[in-house]
Structure formats: C-alpha cells, structure tokens
Write a structure and sequence with these properties.
This protein has about 120 residues and is α+β, with helices and mostly antiparallel strands. The protein contains 5 helices and 4 strands, in the order βααβααββα. The chain has a 4-stranded antiparallel beta sheet with strand order 1-3-4-2. A hairpin with a 2-residue loop joins strand 3 and strand 4. The longest helix is centred in the last third of the chain and has 17 residues.
C-alpha cells in the first residue's frame, strides 16, 4: 500500500488560512464530516461518492484540495484509493485558535507541553 500526505506547517498562518478556506466549501466540509465518522480507517473514494452523491470528477477535485492542505491521507490499496482524516492537522487548527484567543490575552494559562508541534501525532478526539 502506498501512503501519501501533506503535513500542515504549524508556524504558517498562511497555511492555516488555506486549510480553513478549503473547509469553507460545503462539499469539502461534508467529506471531512463523513471521514470523521469513519475514523481511523477512512473510506474508499467510491463509498464517499455514493454517500454524498457527488460526481466522480467533482469528488476527485475536492479530495485533492483537502489532501493538498494536509487534512487527508490518501492510501492506495490495489485498485481502490482510501481517504482518511489526519487528526494531527485538525488538532493544529484547534490549537491555533486556542493559543491565539486564550493565551495571548492570558485568559487561560497554557502549559508549554500543550503547545502544538510540527511532529504532533495525537490521536483523534
């Protein structure tokens, strides 16, 4: 099996904005929600298409965009391509807001051990 992914750079506000922009499209948000419900295994592209009723070319475009911004893993298994959520990317997005809104104004004290790192490999939820 071949596995590909694109990690989100935790220090890049531009990358974080790009990731949120990708989630701002309704079909992509539906894809992410569906894949969250299938975590950690994910789903093959055909099953995503069947569940959401999106044409194959349109689905391919959306999956590629989500993969490019680091939200999805793509894994080839014989003739199927499986997609799954990258929980570490979702955590980085949440940590970005937490650090900005809570620690900058010192509303909440952040333990240094809670700061997001590039090598963050936390499990989902």
């Amino acid at each position: 099996m071949e596995k590909t992914n694109t990690p989100l750079d935790a220090t890049s506000v531009e990358k974080i904005a790009e990731t949120f922009a990708a989630l701002g499209q309704i079909s992509r948000l539906q894809i992410v929600r569906l894949l969250l419900s299938a975590y950690p295994k994910g789903l093959p592209a055909g099953e995503i298409q069947q569940n959401l009723g999106i044409s194959a070319p349109t689905l391919s475009h959306h999956l590629d965009k989500l993969r490019q911004v680091g939200l999805l893993n793509m894994e080839k298994d014989r003739q199927w391509i499986w997609y799954s959520i990258r929980p570490e990317t979702l955590k980085l997005l949440i940590d970005f807001f937490y650090a900005e809104c809570c620690t900058r104004n010192q509303v909440v004290e952040l333990d240094p051990g809670e700061l997001p790192t590039k090598s963050s490999q936390n499990s989902c939820c």
